[in-house]
Amino acid sequence: MDLCHVPAAREKGWYLALMAPNVKGPNYAWLDPSRLYCHPQGLQDCVADLLQPFQGDAIDMVAGIDAMGFILGAAAAATLQKGFLAIRKAGHLCVQTVAQPYSDYSGREKVMEVRTDAISPGLRILLVDQWVETGGTMRAAIELVERLGGVVAGVAAICMENSEGGKWIQERYKCSHCVPPRLQPHFDQH
Fold first, then answer.
1. What distance in Å separates the CA atoms of residue 67 and residue 92, rounded to the nearest whole number?
2. Can you tell me the distance from the alpha carbon of 77 to that of 64, in angstroms, rounded to the nearest whole number?
3. How far apart are CA 128 and CA 113, in angstroms?
4. What 3-state DSSP class applies to 45?
């Protein structure tokens, strides 16, 4: 699909076809959404689909998870006319932070951090990332928000796999993703 073509019928998830498969091996995600972000209508429709379940909900801020969650999170924040908070991999913030260790989708041990002055008690945060595979990265972000007294207003990602960690998140928080039910098994079994 070229980056200018917009299909006549734009059902939820039409833009998933813009994603490219991994050609670099097991240290990379199995799909690359960056081409979707290059397509103006695809990006707009993706963000609209992610935000649709949260219409009318109280959201004070959007937080995107390092690094690809920054793209969707900033787009969601702009659409909602809310502020944007970057939840970073450790070592990138030059201000006081709180840190949370986690295991990413590849099983690597990492640390996530967020600035301590951005989340006040009761602030309702929509967490955004491009993908929830095992749930470790999103769960670390949830723990950071809640440790600072914030409330997780919801979790949004292009795909939320039905892994143990993905199910844990979906059972406890309002969630949104872009994968139609008929395609979900394909995304879960990559």
1. 11
2. 9
3. 15
4. helix
Q: Are 33 and 158 in contact (CB under 8 A)?
A: yes
Side-chain-facing half-sphere of 10: CA atoms under 13 Å:
13
48 three-class SS? helix
Is residue 16, in this structure, part of any structural domain at all? no
Q: Which two tokens stand for residue 48?
A: 């609209």
Distance CA 46, CA 72 (A): 9
Residue 151 lies in a domain: yes
pLDDT over threshold 70, residue 29? no
Number of separate domains in the chain: 1
Percent of the chain with pLDDT over 70: 96
* 131: containing domain: 47-188
Query: What are the structure tokens assigned to 97, written together?
Result: 């932070």
Per-residue pLDDT of 114-155, as tens digits, reads 999 999 999 999 999 999 999 999 999 999 999 999 999 999
Residue 82: inside a domain: yes
What pTM was computed for the model?
Answer: 0.93
Domain CATH for 140? 3.40.50.2020
Q: Is residue 34 part of a domain?
A: no
